[in-house]
Amino acid sequence: MGGADKKSGLRVWRNARLATMAEGAAGLGVVEKGAVAMRDGLIVYAGPEADMPEAAGQGADTVDCESRWITPGLIDCHTHLVYAGDRANEFEMRLAGATYEEVARAGGGIVSSVKSLRAASEGELVAQTLPRLDALIAEGVTTVEVKSGYGLDADNEKKSLRAARRLAEQRPVTVRTTCLAAHALPPEAKGDKDAFIDLVAGTILPEVAAEKLADAVDGFCEGIAFSPEQMTRVFDRAKALGLPVKLHADQLSNLHGAALAARYGALSADHLEYTDEEGAAAMAKAGTVATILPGAYYFIRETKKPPVELFRCHGVKMAVATDSNPGTSPLTSLLLTMNMAATLFGLTVDECLAGVTREAARALGLLDRTGTLEAGKSADLAIWDIERPAELVYRMGFNPLHARIWRGQ
Ligand code: DI6
Ligand code: FE
């Protein structure tokens, strides 16, 4: 058997406790004496070991999980992982009393990361990003979304997105890229936001689409960034190019970004601290996922919490992500992010775990491929040395990952 079966990539993880996260299952979709069978990188069975069809396990390599827990591989569905340098200096300014908005208006903020990124080569960007990616992977992340948005011209946006794509050649992880050209106004735009939006919609997005560098399009709809009207011009072009949209919405004020995102059938609207009931209702109707980003809330010492209770009432699905970025969330731990979502916003353990698996997959339009332990999906698994799933949310700064499997490897 050996050789031939290895080639067919057959493996069974048995004697495990599963949190399948399957849609419609109660809670985490727990299976106490469970097994997962994989063939050629895809799950062919996930459920009670006793019920596993013989065919699924025949001739397979078998791994005894010794009662460890298996969850879907974790998914970080909102990051700005590709950047150069850092903004520790601004952190010190803010500790001395400056607000994020003051730092941004004083020419710091995003624009200082733009300068650093423009000065870096694609290879340097990849090299600087890998340690951050490795930190995520070390905690069981198997899919990560990476946004551009520090290039802010066609060449540098494309450079960022190429660097993001190259991460997937360097590490066993799925990378989804998002073009966030409408993130901030670059210095050469000299304050003319409308002209810059023309450049984004008329040049940057078409070039990015032509080279297939982005899987989605995002924007920052905010007083210090772009207006809802400007975002509609970006979204109209994205739609025309066949790209799904997402939005940084209602983070610092309520410009009704959530409702705008819903109007465009966005995969997700993200941040949402200032979202109102109308926005939540619109998101529910459109099936737009609410991506909760407690790292940024914590780091900028925001006090307005996202309306989690409204999302629950209206049936809006909630994802949880790091927002890893140099300015407002220098965070590369999805485990700690779950703890923050629970402690700061009152998410339950089940909501946190769904938020970094099934709902994160939904927020990326990948739910048919990953995010739950179900037959037909990619064999993306995280195996944990824990007694109960709550431990993944409860601890701070402790990593109980035993093994991580990406596409069966
Ligand atoms: N909202 C954020 O929190 C980040 N981008 C955004 O649109 C901030 C990014 C940065 O400050 O570098
Ligand atoms: Fe962000």
Short structural summary:
The chain has 409 residues and is of the alpha/beta class. It is 39% helix and 21% strand.
Structure description:
The protein is α/β, with parallel strands linked by helices and 409 residues long. It is 39% helix and 21% strand. The chain is built from 17 helices and 15 strands. It has helices at 2-8, 54-57, 88-95, 100-105, 110-119, 122-137, 154-170, 193-210, 228-240, 257-263, 277-286, 294-299, 308-314, 334-345, 349-355, 358-363, 390-394, and strands at residues 10-19, 30-39, 42-48, 61-64, 69-72, 74-76, 141-147, 174-182, 216-221, 246-249, 268-271, 289-292, 318-320, 381-384, 401-405. The strands form 2 sheets. It has an 8-stranded parallel sheet. Helix 6 packs across helix 7, helix 10 (257-263) packs parallel to helix 11 and helix 14 crosses helix 15 (349-355). The longest helix is centred in the middle third of the chain and has 18 residues, at 193-210. It is globular. The protein binds 3-[(4S)-2,5-dioxoimidazolidin-4-yl]propanoic acid (DI6) and fe (iii) ion. 3-[(4S)-2,5-dioxoimidazolidin-4-yl]propanoic acid binds at residues 80, 109-110, 113, 183, 220, 248, 251, 296, 323, 325-328.
